[in-house]
Every structure is written in structure tokens, then in C-alpha cells.
Amino acid sequence: MNLKTYLVIAFSISVVSIIGFSLISLLISDQKILYFDRTIIGIVQGSESMGLTYVMKFFTFIGSAPFVIVLSLFLLFFLYKVLHHRFELILFVSAITGSAILNGILKNLFQRVRPDLHRLIDVEGYSFPSGHAMNAFTVYGIISFLLWRHIPSRFGRATLIFVSTVMILAIGISRIYLGVHYPSDIVGGYFASGFWITTAILFFQYYQEKRYNKKKQREKDIA
After folding, report:
1. Which of 114, 115, 113, 118 is nearest to 46 (CA)?
2. Of 122, 124, 123, 127, nearest to 107 (Cα)?
3. What does the pLDDT look like over 54-105, one tens digit per residue?
């Protein structure tokens, strides 16, 4: 896939993400999304059971900041020592830290109070957009992007996308099930993270292409 194709795809996803986030935030500000939120909460929490609660607590732990930090350190080691990626480390660190900073800024900007309908765990802080949703989308999105080129088979790539998608959705749903986020918080988090990581990948691919072209030009000049 050439640079132009990468740029078009990344730009398109970024535009869709920023439009989606803007619409969600407007609906939240105008209180026009409460029916949707309460309907989805009712459906998700309607299947409550002791076993499912344990499962959802597990997924919400996977999306928490402490787990993401540990996972990120492991992935940094894997990228550096196993795949021998140096430049990709900058993309990975920038995506993870930038997502956390963006989430903090947006939470303080909107200051949405968390739902208080039926909480199964206690958390503090603002609700929109979901930090867990942004963590999940950013981490598994970047993992998929970086590992994609190293998986030769279609089945392997399909498995990578499937697992990443399941993890992203499960972590988001767990926050709704546990009663600490509105569904619109989760969707907004996905859109915000989608905008951030596609923008980061866009600049990464552009810079990689420039480096490659300069290297080829130097080789031609030497020859």
C-alpha cells in the first residue's frame, strides 16, 4: 500500500471520527441522548449475574491505566528487542500518552457527571469521554497497525483484527454494565481515540515515506 492510499484512509477515518465525536458531544450538551443512553443501559444491565459481573470486572481491569502501563512496557520491550523497531516506539509512546492527555482535557472540558442508576463499582471523576474506551481503542488499534505487516497470512491478520475488536468492545461494554459510564461516553471515547491514533499514524507514515525516499536518493547519489 503506497503513501497516498495510507494518507487517504487515515484522513477519512480522522474526519469521520471528529464528526462523530462532535455530534455525540452536541447531543450530550442538549440532553438529547438520554433516552438512547438509558435504553442501552437497561439492555446491558438487564443480563446481570454474579458470573457476568466477574467477567466485566476483569475486562474493566484490562482497560484500566495500571494494566495499560504494564502492557505498554511489555510491548515496548517486544518492539525493541524482538521486532527491532526503534522508530515505531515513538509512534506507540506518542499514541498512548497523547490519548491519556486528550482524555483528561476532554473530561475537564465537558465535565459530565457519571450515571447514578445502578453502579456495581465505585469510581470518581468525570464521565465523558470514557478513559477506558479511549485506552482500549488506542492500545489495540496501535497494536493492530504495528503487527499487521508482520503477519503474512490472511487468517492471522483476520484473527488480529477480531481479537482487537473483541477487546475494544468488551472493555467498553464492561463500563456500561458496571454502571460507571453512559453508552454515549463509550462511543465518544472510541471516536476521540479514532481521531487521535489515525492522525498519529498519518504523520508516522508520511515521515517514514520521506525517510525512505531520502535514503534511496542518497544511494543513487553514491552510485
Report:
1. 118
2. 127
3. 999 999 998 888 888 888 888 888 777 776 667 778 888 888 899 999 999 9
